[in-house]
Fold each of these.
Amino acid sequence: MATPLELLAPAGNADIGIAAIDHGADAVYIGAPKFSARADAGTGVADIARLIRHAHLYYAKVYVALNTILTDKELPEALEIIHEVFQLGADGLILQDVGLLELNLPPIPLIASTQMHNNTLEKVQFLEAVGFKRIILARELSLDEIASIRQKTRVELEAFVHGALCVSYSGQCYMSQAATGRSGNRGVCAQPCRSLYTLTDGDGAVIRQEKFLLSLKDLNLMNAIPDLIAAGVTSLKIEGRYKGIDYVKNITAAFRQAIDQFIGKHSDYCRSSSGISELTFSPDPARTFNRGYTRYFIAGRREKIASIDTQKSIGQYVGKITGTGADFFRMGSHDLQNGDGMCFFTKQNSLTGFRVERVDKEKIYPNKMAGLTIGVHLYRNHDIAFTRILKKSSARRRIAVEMDFTQESALIRLAVRDEDGNHAETIREVLPELPRNPSRALEQIETHLSSTGSSPYRVTGLTIRPQQPGFLTVSTLNGIRRDVLEALTRIRLENYPRETIRLTPNAAPYPEKRLDFRVNVLNEHARRFYQRHGAEVTEPAFEALSCMAGKTVMTTRYCIRHQLDLCPKSNRPSHPLREPLRISDRHHAYRLEFDCQQCRMSVILERKR
């Protein structure tokens, strides 16, 4: 039996989720009305219900994210929301707070959020043992690490393949809380990783002045899809519940094509939902929001993964300037259009931009010429032609059906069977007329039964009996086709293969015995959960600490020394830096500690300025 592969797309709201389904997603994830790790991307129950109905028609799934840590007062409301979304038909619950597992949950499949810091085999084994159906793996894992987890577990594995990267291990970043009082684990991250910092050595000498030292490029693992699947990943996830509909359309369609290409060459894998998306455009990840792309650590530490000169989107590289005039410049071959947004790096390595006002063959007239000299490399971060295409209806997803039409003496019968084996039938009493032109009568039946209009179906086979049918009016043919397809839709939704799993609490041992603030315990139910599993919680979540100074506010596989070619292991600088290194902004200073054996960096809050 073929293994289903899932393309999982973000849904900032119901309309974006519906667009993701239409552009090929096998599943979408959307924020619960409250308590989502993207607090501003919460969605009302009516919209969640609308999205679920649309997704389930294509046998695609909807997962609801309720993945913040919760206070004792919030748990009852969270439980009420969980029961409500379960009743709506949600296919899974993405959660972080283990206190929820101590409550009377409905039989909804549980998905361990990446905020739970799922970066080791031991952690994944524990989560599988306590009842999670799926684990969202830490983004930092390599193919070898994922394969090792797969070999010793049976739980579903989900991995990010595209989108923005948190520089810290997810769930282990407390920098926003420390700097602004806005907790990432509570869904309101202020993104201090996208801020400017100055790096100094142990003597206070400046190494880098006001750079985006913690801002990473965006992830793109499209070319690693076969490797991820071979390692054991079956759900390929696109990040972006804060992204707009154009972004979701483009990236979903691009990954749909890549996954289908893989499936086409590997008969032991299949899609996990129904229908084929017909696109009006050619998807291209380079033509949408990106800070430059990286494969991160999927193949180990092989590349520079930060974008320290800008935290903004640079978009698509289009070429370099070959000539200039008083108010225009020239490039080699290009497809620039009036209204395109462009950017480039100045001699000081700062990002600046301009708008294309007019294109006259090889001459490009910008709204300003400052900095546009021969040899400057240009990027397009607003592609107006591409945006116009995506603003319109850009995809139609349709389910394959076969029709069987039979005409008898006083009735007509139309039966339909879809690609998932669902069957519907409609019968009408009709006295057919003798056709003046038998071939014309047959052609009219073929044309109008095959024309499925705006329905979510496409006819891939049609049988007509007898071969010389009587004449039927267009309204009769359209009516019986409409009736049978509406009946099929009802049957598809009734037969949707929804999975339910009842959680059974147990006492599987947690892999650690003493737990500090980094397990993010903010309520007594979570504390009891760890106690039941043999672990003692020695301090509450970071958000409840009275003193934050001296605490590690970020743990990351990203290394500033490696990024700046200052790594004592790989670069062996002739004059090693005097430790400790520090980064600072206008308000805070942080000490950096390096674990070269594990290739990890810790960011420790020292003081407020």
Note: The CA atoms of residues 304 and 564 lie 9 Å apart.
Amino acid sequence: MQVYTGPWTKAEAAHLLRRTTFGATNQQLLTAVSNGMNATVNSILQIPAGDQPLAYDAGETIVPQGSTWVNAVYPANQTQNQQTENARFKSLGAWIAKNINQEQLCIAEKMAFFWQNHFGVTATAEARAMYHFLNLLRQNSLGNFKQLIKDVTVHPAMLLFLNGATNNVFSPNENYSRELLELFSIGKGNQLAAGDYSTYTETDVAAGAKILTGYTVTGIRSSTLTQATASFNPILHDNNSKTLSYHFNNQVIAGAGASEYANYIDVIFSQPQVAKYICSKLYRYFVNYDITPTIQTDVIDVLAQTFITNNYEILPVMQQLLTSDHFYDMSIRGAIIRNPIEMIMGALNPTQTIPNFGLVGDYQTYISIYYVSDTMGQSYIVPPSVAGWTAYYQAPAYSKLWINSTYIKKRFDIVSALVYSGIPIGSNVLKMNLLGFLNGLSDPSNAPQVIDDICDVFFPKAINAVDKLTLKLILTNGLPDFEWTLQYNDYVANSTNTTYFTPVTQRMQALMNVILKMPQFQTI
């Protein structure tokens, strides 16, 4: 796979940032152009330390407002216990939305969502366990995938989600064993015969269930323990040898107690199909859903070999992908429809629309944003199934599944609200930062340049001349360009005077209301 050596313009920089972040500002695009592709990619592929969700809701009765609850106990009283749990999940949802809205210019939040979709864990355990699971995914999102699978396998959130905590020698449970093979590591291939899926067999599922026996979880919503923890109980483990199918060379997994599951995962990873399967998922998420035989050979197989050569480190694969000639191909741009979170944050982040209402007001705003995304089909910590969202695996529609008559209306409604009246949340109103966005463009007093910059920020491909002229006429209200220049300069000279900033605001509202409803904005 060849390294990209073509032009490095604002269009290429915008494509990179559009795919790896939830939305970049015009200045960030210009900085990326100035820095060049390699430096920009290197910068993006840094995972900063994350913070922790804070208590803000009245239902939280253990920690004071503004403190984190991630290592705090729960109330002993059952009614208060449930109220606290509800408050913590609201805090967690708000924290997720905050992280995405205030993301640093890096791939961390996109990668974190990729892995949440990959593992498909639904928030069924408790808020503390879910936070630590999400943090595990985020902090290791570019790390070693083999180790990540091992860590996920015995994490309390996963043990509870797929019944690993009740999987024991007396009653083996195949839920996690099946998904480990079918969804998380090697993937389900074509069915060759009854119980044979070309990458594993039902024999492997049954053997895997026995290998994974013996883990339990304690401390869920405990009033005395500050964490839900997983532990291994030898009495509950099937310590007999287990024989795998011919797909794994009939390898025997000897009884090894607490380390047996890790030995089993090492055997799974000895098959090159693991690398191909994961690289295919990365490709569909970051590049395009359409994997042709040529792309399989020239892109996926090459990335898979890089994955294997680097002992399943994710970073080298992403480095190779994001600097490849294929990634910047014009046919790739605009090929993916934004998911609901990408749509909402794709409007907020480039305009630097960030709540500034204090702790409670900000968290109330962010949980509201989270719920809005849910109404459009995407609740971050509640995937529809263990397979994640259908838009990432359901052929042939894939990302088109994000759009239907109901969802598109909701998208348009949220745009109109953000642009015009704002969204009332308690005593606060979240409204798009239109003047701040305008002031951050290359030459805000130049109407054609304003349109060029806005198109660069929000559209994956150049629009035709007629559409661009139409947008400019909306901005200028049909008047000559110099009238906009005068109007904007008057506003700058009198920025607090409603006589001058109101007309500029109204023109930007009319413009952005159209831009954020155009088909081009719905894609990345």
Note: The beta strands are 215-218, 229-232, 242-243, 252-253, 423-425, 428-430.
Amino acid sequence: MIKSLHIENIAVIEKTDIDFKDGFNVLTGETGAGKSIIIDAINAVLGERTSKDLIRAGCDKAIVSALFCDLSIEAKNQLLENGFELDVDGNLLITRTLTLSGGSIKVNGRPATSTVLKEVAKNLINIHGQHDNQKLLDPDNYYIYLDMIAENNNLLDEYYSEFKHFNSVRRELNSQETDEGEKQRRIDILQYQIKELEDADLSIGETDEIKRKLSIAENYEKTLSALNDAQYCLGGGESADGAISLVRNAQKFIDSAKNDELSSFSDKLAEVFAELQTLDADIRAFADSDEYRDLDAEKLRERLDTLHRLMLKYGDDEQKMLTFLENARNELEQIVCSDKRIEELSLELDASTERLVSLGEKLTASRVAAADKFSRQVSDVLCDLDMPNVKFVVNVNRQKYTRHGCDAVEFLISANAGESVKPLHKIASGGELSRTMLAIKSVLADKDDVDTLIFDEIDTGISGRAADKVGLQLQRVSDSRQVICVTHLAQIAAYAENHLLIEKSVLDSRTYTNVVSLDYEQQIREIARIMSGTELTEKLYNSAKELLDRSKK
């Protein structure tokens, strides 16, 4: 449950700390005091999208932090799955900072994203407000309620897995069952591409090697002349000695001096002589090589043009072209063998259809059973909410198979005696919708593992005795869950175990909001204000006290 909420610089709230308790917590206050801002702050700390407009005017950042304690097993597991742990006291602290340029989120001191925060927070708080009435008016959401009653999680997972498999097989089968003309055209294209690439006899690195050889071939005559001149310089000729002979002679002159101090010169000349001989041999071998002598520049250019042409069609290097060739061979094999594959897929589609239908029927059966139980339970709660003549019926009808099953669920209601039931989304008034939503949430309260339920002005459209019944029902729900309710009705506020007043004040032309927990006497006065809004009189005070005392019995 949420233990405390700290807010800084959110709209009209400069700074406030709110302590929530177990059981039934109520928030009241004058219009514009900031009740909705409290809900906005809680939404922010749960990872919902926020706007920089939420930051108090004149401030560059806002902070919301919430402390949670006594977390459920599911909430703890969700934390661990996302890489977070509880603090040493077993608590969870979520802090969200909003700035004009962005913001940050921390979960127990560690940075987190809003996506991760939503995952962590989904087992902490459920907020139900007037927008939930829109969900209540959307029949596409009704199956969710029945699945919660029936505890269909495992069956839904099994059904959805088979539904995905069914669609996957069907898509592949449809792609295989191409018309024969299209299939033959594709075979012809693949065969042509495969033959063209196979005839090219590609090898990785061939393009670079051809470019190197072409450079040699195109300059071969000039290269050969340079090599011959180099050989002459090294080996000499009939009219002159070359470098090799000259170095050898230099060594002989040194040796003839028979001076030991010159021996190092002789050794170095010997090394140079040996290196020159090796170099001369290498140059001669290169010049005499058949590999380079037989290079045909024209043929090299033709081969390079062929490779460039293929690269434009199949990839910009040999590896990509060979990959294209392999893929083309595989596709051709699949098409050629498609008849066999079609037969296999057809059998698998039949088997998957049978499994899907069986799972769909199980899902329908569980929902039909849940519908009867759910309609009775919701009707009972609605009777307690001052709708004694209500008829609430849940119909489950078959429809086409979707990812959620093959059922269309319909909620029908008659709020008055003698009237036939009609679709809820067509006839219910605001007050009836509010009470119906509360009844549904009451029935489902024990079907999820969220410890805190927040009701934001769920009392819209009701008053008097109905409001008293709503307050009593919220108190009953709070026996097993922490309940926080924003209300403008005295009858509901009177049932609170922890009554929080949102006060607004103006100082130096700035609006400030503060939240205080009311004691018994303060609660009487606030209930009296809600009841009348006029100056407190003894009669009004006594009426408020009577209402408060009666709700505590």
Note: Residues 1-124+450-518 form a domain with the Rossmann fold fold (CATH 3.40.50.300).
Amino acid sequence: MRLKYSKLAALALALILLLTGCEEMVLPFGQNRPTEDTGTDTGPGGRDTTAPETLPGGDGYTKADNVFSVNYNPQGSFDPLSGTDYYNEQLFGLLYEGLFSLSSTLTPEPVLCESLETQDGVTYTLTVRGDVYFHDGTRLTAHDVVYSLNTARASAKFSTRLEDIASVSETGELTAQIKLKNANYMLASLLDVPVIKDPAFTAQPPAPAGDTTGDTSGADDTTGDTTGDTSTAQTAAPTFSGPVGTGPYYYSGGKLAAFTGHRDYKAGSLQVIYLKEVATGDMADSFADRSIDFVGYDPTGNDKLNIHMVHETRYYDTTDMVYLGFNCKSGPTRDVYVRQALMRLVNLDAICSDVFENAARRSVFAISPALGLVSDRDEAGYGYSRQNFNRLALGAGLEDRDGDGAIDYLGSPMTLRLVVNYETSGKVEAAQRIVTDMRNMGINVVLVSMTFDNYQRALQRGEFEMYLAEVRLKADFDLGVLFYGKYNYGGADGSTYRPLVREFLAAPDQETRSAAALALDLHIAEDACIVPIGYKQRSVLTHVGVVEGVDPSQSNLYRNVLGWKVNLENQT
């Protein structure tokens, strides 16, 4: 995670000080929000780093409403195992918890899990924490965990993520057994699935003495303010449609109230989070006038938030990989030496910095650099390099034999089709950058921008030499889906990938995993069926100086919310 001020923020803050004297499936780009582990998130996106037209508190800005408010959709589902509403999903981390949660750099951290033990990476013994209570006052047991995981396994949202689980069974009040189809020592990375109460199971002990579940007295107060007018931050309160969870907040009539029965609850926490319905097109204005205080968004998505004010941006890593794929079955790109040469013309740095506005980690190798499993030294020679292209092109039969300025393949004219879905401008821009760099080296490339349906048909029929795509990988980075799974559009020889992927997932420790990751990454780079470009980073926006301790992740934008320090007076 990195915290960044918008462009010229330092100058604006300095001016404040001077004036006052005061001291974070392969999809075609542009699709709607996908279900879990299937592709890119295209919720409210983009970031504007221009300087504010007026400073916070000056003319053109509304005085802060002195309550902490976030966006939601009252018509959307609050069921974390099936709901896919973009804004409500962002709130699930407040209402529900998983056995684990991913950190901002995709490391699994225990939440509801006391321990997860295995001897072979196939059979796991899970122990649930004994000090966790649901919002209705009943205690969490292994039964609820088993119910949640099995419900998730059968759901459209989580079935792909949990497809390698063979069975989940209860073995005791706080213990369960998970059996996998294949060894995977990275199982914890997949277990950030929200845990909910089994609605049919009631034989649980009551809440501990002193719990005030359901008591919303004091709910009009937030840390740092007890007098603000809350009228601007509330909307009509619909009936809550979600199951019972264990999160640090629970729904209470149009707002989220701190759950005092939560094991980490403390009096200094943000006591109330108000819910306000704001259309995506109005989000920038609502954030600028401070009626919305916390915004999660995709800087590379369709909808740009043109926020002309100083604000704080905190980034977090995701498992969304953007990559260039080759047709390995037909055309010049069926030749591995041609693919190896062409991959040296994909300028990862330029695409990640210029097109994705530094909201993506460049990735020469396929496994995310956020995991820290391989070093920059291992990547040497595989990235963008015109010199290396020229060296490899000769061995691949790529040369301009007739002197017309166009490179031929084995003496015959060559034209390559690069297909991309046009529904997101940023990805079309990335494809255009690749086309330009290849044409500058004499490669005749035709960019074909398509609708989603036509793009999908082209991939399935193999009507391309290259395609630009994005995939949301599972957090264990099982790359099999790209090489012998349903997204193997290029026709890679899966038999060469399967043992390497299995070895990576079955690595029992960091040292072994690093070695297995390098072996897999090198094979992918040498076979060159895909060229990784980068892993997207998403972000959250807050007003300057209002919230400390924000550390979002792909699992939970509100990670460690009970540890936040909130000073709403800084908004005035």
Note: The first strand starts at residue 2 and ends at 5.
